[in-house]
Amino acid sequence: MELEKLLEWRRSYRKFDEERELSKDDIDGILNSIKFASCANNRQFLRFISVESKEKVLKIFDKTRWAASLPNGAGRPKEGERPVYFIAILSDKEKKLKFDGVDQGLVISNLTLAAAERGIGSCIIGSVTDDKMRQILSYDERYTCSLVIAFGYPNIKSKIKEINLSEDQSYYLDDDGNYIVPKYKIDDIVRRI
Prior knowledge:
Blueprint: H1 3-9, H2 24-32, E1 47-51, H3 54-62, E2 85-92, H4 100-117, E3 121-125, H5 130-137, E4 143-152, E5 158-163, E6 172-173, E7 179-184, H6 186-189
Parallel strand pairs: 5-7
Antiparallel strand pairs: 1-2, 2-4, 3-4, 6-7
């Protein structure tokens, strides 16, 4: 897929085909993208947990909140729509750099693009708590987990709708239950000099 189409397709997907597992090759390809992510001073302080066990995936799913912009849990996947794979991103409490958030963003971009190239959707979830993730994933006390990424083959569509600055940028579901993601026009948010 050419890059622009890949970037357009890579949206947050919140409903997956729970019957379709990811292959080992797909998981390995997604994980391999980690080594290509730039990071501050090349310190590589982030650590990752590849959650492949169905039991652990469901436990993590139970401890997450989904689609805060949608009313009444409309964005939370139901049985049969839940993700089939998670990656937890861990930060080192002892080796904090001022660019940790940038490092996370860069590696998340790689992970989600590598998945998208394979037709696998993703959703970045920041509504997790470290203590609950630690109970499920048993990682060292020096690390914290403040986000996970859910993966699976999407069974909905997600598309961009260009809007003006005065319009509401909250995502929503259309009449068919697909995601519409409003994005500002480039000329409204970029100053050219």
